[in-house]
Amino acid sequence: MIDIKKGIEPDGLKELREDPMLSGLSPKEMFAELKNPLKAQVIESLRHEQGQLCVYCMSRIPREDKDPGIVGTTIEHLIPVDPEDGRNVGQALDYNNLFAVCHGNVKRRMKGIRRARTTDDLTCDKHRGNTEFRKIDPRKKETLQTIFYTIDGRIDASDQDVRFDLVDTLNLNCTSSPLIAERKAALDVLINEIGKVEEKDLHMNCMKMLNAFLDEGDPKTPYVGILIWYLQTMVTALA
Q1: Roughly what angle, to the nearest 10 degrees, separates helices 179-194 and 202-214?
Q2: How far apart are CA 227 and CA 187, in angstroms?
Q3: Which of 13, 199, 204, 210, by CA, is between 20 and 30 Å from 87?
Q4: Element spanning 209, H or E
Q5: Is the dihedral of CA 85, 90, 91, 93 positive or negative?
Q6: CA-CA distance, 144 to 134, in Å (whole number)?
Q7: Distance between CA atoms of 214 and 224, rounded to whole angstroms?
Q8: pTM (two decimals)
């Protein structure tokens, strides 16, 4: 996971948010009023500022392995649209509260085919539900600074609240999803490239690669978070 810099909201979202007809509606009812073509514009704007990656797992959205009929990119609310305490602080249509996410490892129920799914199989917002984060906020880099990864592709954090958000709330180390293997594969490619560099040029080249990943716009490299972490570790060790 990396921090996301929020951009300017699409034309029409502010007008919808301030529509007198929405007065008195619950956040869930207000969000239901966001329809195409405006909804599609919002999703496209979110995908653009996230570099076409899921804000949580950092896989490319939409994923190619999703079942037919499953929506590949959905809108996520940092403050849940239907929070357990029922509060309404305008979160439903607040662009600063919106992010784009993947399909969360959901499988379609198809006639004649059993596709067992439990909560443990789900990731990202599909696993999160209405649970509020203890600490992480993709808009605030300082809330993500303790995140690290393991060589086998697992995500972790030294801050226990951040770790809970990543592992327990978002289930980003889900063993029935491809996330761990895909993060490892992305890291293996990077390690192979670094292995081709002569030792005398290693620090300089790691710095160049790190800056290139940090400066990526749209699109970003899938699972760029683990690549940035590894390069930062290498640069520190070689300094």
Answers
A1: 140
A2: 6
A3: 13
A4: helix 202-214
A5: positive
A6: 12
A7: 9
A8: 0.92
